[in-house]
Structure prediction request, 157 residues.
Amino acid sequence: MIGIAIIGTADVAETLEKLSNAAKKKLGTDALVEALTPMIDAARAQASDSVDTGNLKASIGFRVKAYKNGKILGYVGPRNGFKVVDRQGRTRIATRYSHLVEFGHAKKGGGTVAAEPFLRPAFAATKQQCAATLGAVLGRKIEIEATRLSRRKRRKK
Prediction:
């Protein structure tokens, strides 16, 4: 998990306190969307095309969830709703088998299928870039909000 701590002046902290929850949620969501894009691209590049449908690769995306306690989390992986019928007539839903591809599994008749990780290598390769992007985007957006709030203060006086 990537955690970001903002260390700055008292003005930044004051600005963050004055932001509404909706504004904080929008700032965090926008920053996560921009920061997670390289990780998604890397995961798609790593995903195996061993299944002839390409469903797993196409299903990789992200979801951003904001909680009442103020935390905003981004989840990267296969998205729900990707259904493809393969050549044998079976419906393939990526969320039902992606973990088997990532970690490998045992076959019913004996033997194993080797793991073909795609999410863990993508995370390892892009976590520093994602954290840097997240910090830069948050910093830029906080500056914009601080300017907007200071203008609003001046108008009220």
